[in-house]
Structure formats: C-alpha cells, structure tokens
Amino acid sequence: MELSAFARQYPKAVLGFSGGVDSAYLLYAGRKEGADWQPVYVRTVFQPAFELEDATRLCTELGVELTVLEENILSDPVIRSNPEDRCYHCKKRLFGRIAEWAKAQQIPLVLDGNNASDLPDDRPGIRATSELGVRSPLREAGLTKGEIRRLSKEAGLFTWNKPAYACLATRIPAGIPLEADMLKKVEIGEARLRELGFSDLRIRVYSGAARIQLPAEQMVASIERREQILSALKSLFSIVMLDLQARPGS
Fold first, then answer.
1. Confidence label for 250 from pLDDT (cuts 50, 70 and 90)
2. Is 236 helix (H, G, I), strand (E, B) or coil?
3. Torsion angles phi and psi, residue 194, rounded to 5
4. How far is the C-alpha of 79 from the C-alpha of 63, rounded, in Å?
5. Distance between CA atoms of residues 52 and 111, nearest Å
6. Is residue 174 over pLDDT 60?
7. What is the pLDDT of residue 122?
C-alpha cells in the first residue's frame, strides 16, 4: 500500500517516535496527507539526551505536540540481564507502554518507523511489535532506508542524513547485566567524542575498558588526536582502545 493511501485509510494513530530518519519522515508524510498521527517518545536510560532533543526539534518544526513517557526499563529483570534477544523484550515493553497510552486516548492503531530495509529475521524487535499489532507504513509501502533519506532531504527535514543510532544497551556484550551508571558513562563518552569532531561512532565496553569504533575515514584523525581522546575519556574508563576494524557506513 502506498504511504499516501495508508494515511488516508488510517488517519488517526499513535506513532512510536524516536526522532530518527524513519519515524521523522513518517510523521512528516502523514501530516502532509492530513493524518493525525500523534508522536510518542518513550524515554529510558537506553536513549542519549540528543535523541529526545532531535525528536522535540522535529516535532516543533512540524507543529506537532510530542508526548514523552518515562519508563524504568531496567526494572525488568529479563532486560536488565541483557540476553541475546534483549531487543525483543525491550521493544515489547516500550510498545506495550505506547499501546496502553493509545488505548487510554481511545486510539486503536499504533505505528512504528520500520522500513523495507529492516528484515524481520535480523530484528527481533520487529517480531515484538508484530505480536502487539503495530503497523509499519514505511515497510508496507516498500520504502527503503536510502529512499527515505532521499525523500527526507527533498522535504527539507534535518534528519535526512542523521546517522543510524542503536540504543546504548547495544554497547554492552550480551550476558553482561546492564547498569544505569555504565550506560551513562557510554553516553557521556560518545558525546565528548562528538564534541571533538568525530561522528557515527560507538564506544563498546568490555570489563570496564572502552573500545572506540569509528568510520574508516576518521581513523587517521583519531591517532593524531590520541591525547585529546584519552583526556576526554580517562575519567570514565580505565582503559581506552581503538578498534582498527572500521564501522560500516549507515
């Protein structure tokens, strides 16, 4: 089903909103067709502060009110234990919360920003949202990530070239219990590296050590600015390492 047809058929819905490329374009496209899709952001320790800032900015630019729900995600013992299928349990809880809010508003339909490039076999979170009856208009319309970036640029959305961003919990190896303090250190560390001019980066944590992942084109700069990086991270991590296996493009 084309996205415009979906919006006309389902003009009232709640949109699980992250402020990323996909949900941003979906909100824009729905508004363009006259649909009343209400964006809802669920704030947890898994999202860095800039994600909510971007979500708020995008909604402000589109003239839409953003609803923010607070969720203590680490109160769930399964999620806190960080199993291999953590994303499944996390998505189930987050969109379960959104579905409860939608029901309270008497809105029967919940949407997400999954697109045609997101394969269900690779994303346990898609299985979770599917079980909850969440619809994915971008995926149903066959729109890929590349197409959504192009359309977002044409629409003038600042999110069009925003790097893909996985939640902070992915920085901790599966099986290592998740702790709010360590997630906060990762958030602060990545923010400090962005302040130094690095982008599309990750800090992975292993036994208290930070392993920095950067795109290939930023490797030379990281070596040249080694002392600045160490100064930025030494108060957070006992050991700081550079992963020579470059991050793939997003």
1. very low
2. coil
3. -65, -35
4. 35
5. 18
6. yes
7. 60
In 3D space, the residue among 97, 101, 52, 103 whose CA is nearest the CA of residue 76 turns out to be: 97
Sign of the CA dihedral 229, 247, 249, 57? negative
- Vertex 16, ends 31 and 132: CA angle to 5°? 125
Give the helix, strand, coil percentages of the chain, each rounded to 5.
Answer: 50, 15, 35
Is a pLDDT exceeding 50 seen at residue 154? Answer: yes
Per-residue CA distances from 132 to 4, 29, 116, 136, 157 (Å) = 24, 24, 19, 12, 30
Query: Cα 110 from chain centroid?
Result: 17
CATH for 179-242 (3.30.300, 1.20.58, 2.60.40, 3.40.720)? 3.30.300
Q: Which CATH superfamily is domain 3-161 in?
A: HUPs (3.40.50.620)
Q: At 152, is the secondary structure helix, strand, or coil?
A: helix
β-sheet bridge partners, residue 41: 68
Nearest to 39 by CA among 60, 133, 155, 48: 60
Alpha-carbon span 58 to 74, nearest angstrom: 28
Q: What number of other Cβ atoms are within 10 A of residue 181's Cβ?
A: 7
End-to-end C-alpha distance for the chain, whole angstroms: 26
**From CA 183, how far away is CA 186, in angstroms rounded?**
5
Instruction: Report d(CA 218, CA 210) in Å as an integer.
Output: 17
Whole-structure pTM value = 0.91
Cα distance between residue 154 and residue 214, in whole Å: 28
